[in-house]
Design goal:
- With 85 residues, this protein is mainly alpha-helical.
- It has helices at 5-20, 27-38, 52-59, 62-84.
- α1 (5-20) crosses α4 (62-84).
């Protein structure tokens, strides 16, 4: 099964963000936040022979996580306004 590892990264960063900031907990907002961020970041798929270490290294990349956090902070307000206005 193909997996976009950027989505894994974004969902992890969102989880960390939610532990520090108030974010709407509804499924619609969460999915919209992730979709907004994923549309701004390049997808990442690994070949079948890639090691788990390579995949983990990608998800833990500080530069990528920082970029996701920047995009996420903007997406939180957009998603909330769209779903609850």
């Amino acid at each position: 099964m193909l997996q976009n590892h950027t989505e894994t990264l974004v969902r992890e960063v969102l989880g960390e963000y939610k532990s520090k900031e108030t974010v709407c907990e509804c499924e619609q907002c969460e999915n919209d936040i992730v979709a907004i961020v994923l549309n701004k970041m390049p997808p990442k798929y690994f070949l079948s022979d890639a090691s788990e270490g390579e995949k983990i290294s990608y998800v833990l990349d500080k530069k990528l996580r920082f970029e996701a956090l920047i995009q996420l902070t903007e997406a939180v307000k957009l998603a909330y306004d769209k779903n609850h206005s």
